[in-house]
Amino acid sequence: MRTRVAVLAVLLCIVVAGCSAPVSLPEPGEGDVETPGDATQPPRTGSTPDDGSDGDGEERDVRDAAWNDGSTPVPAVDNPYDEETLTVAVDDANVSAGRDVRPAVRDALDFWEANSRHYAGYAVDYRLLDEDSDTSDADLVVQFVDDIRDCGREQHVAGCAPYITRGPVDRPAVVRIKTGFDANSTTLVLEHELGHTLGLGHDDEPSEVMAGETMLTTQPKTDATDRELAWNHSTLSVYVDYGDADDRQATERQVAAALGYFEDGAEGTVPENVSFVRVDDPGRADVVVRFADDLQCGTRRGSCGRVEGYDPDGDGRLETYSKLEVTIANLDTEAVAWHVARWVGRGLSLDSDAEYPEPLRETTSAAERRTEWWR
């Protein structure tokens, strides 16, 4: 099962006069702001069987075992296993301590016990072996693994299973499930991969189980705002578009001052190994700063920011950042460094105002923001 991770974008702004973006910071004394909700996109995944044709919070929302989607039962076929009751062993050596994945396995087995005749063309029962049973004695082994690197032509998969349509079956048939998914997603991956062992492909019913793409979420992960560094690397690439800047050289000095402030540790508020490198392609940049003649956050003067990243646990909050885009419009050149630095701080997991170094807090006056506060 191929995996995709949710990509979220959060638009924010720092303004001189009123703004209606999700989060904003007005210039001192310029009034209140509105805070609409954030838009999110859920995680998605897909999958593949071994022939290439084509896993922790524990709240479980298990579908009814008897699945009635109104589809016509498939014609009866010969059982490739040549027996109706299949023994199943679970290899959970790679599962994190304290987590029991056997209930998810049982749920998936129950689903196919109730539905295999309808969708696969033959009835099957499963006997889940005890934890200390020898896996070599099983018809099927469900193996939880940290990663799956070889599964037909696909990469980045959540599960992998042999595509069994005829016998004799080489036993035990091994179903691999990637660890780290929450209970519901683990059950769904299990149902999907077990469907392959029953001869079902991605175009077969039930599509809610066998479709090549579906939603998957991981166990809860630490939010980006609670991480010391929310990027996958400590050297961030920066692209600057000076398009509508009044004085390019003076503006560049302001941008350089803001970046240098964080490279020096920003008074101990960011990791010491943070650094920046300039690039000439915005597509390759982690941080993009643009100087424009207007802003998308509903104000004429100030700055807007857009933070993008990944939300693998599906809680609607980013866990890792992948892009920070800053737009600045109609500001005095002397105020540019403060605005750039405020956004860079946001990208370096400074969330509440108290987490920022004093020169970058909301309480700084307009005059203070236009000084060489970084020295």
UniProtKB/TrEMBL annotation:
Keywords: Hydrolase, Metal-binding, Metalloprotease, Protease, Zinc
Region annotation Disordered: where it falls in the sequence: 25-82, 354-375
Residue intervals of the Peptidase M10 metallopeptidase domain: 99-213
Molecular-function annotations in GO: metal ion binding; metallopeptidase activity
EC number per UniProt: 3.4.24.-
GO terms of biological process kind: proteolysis
The protein's name in its UniProt record: Matrixin family metalloprotease
Species of the source: Halomarina salina
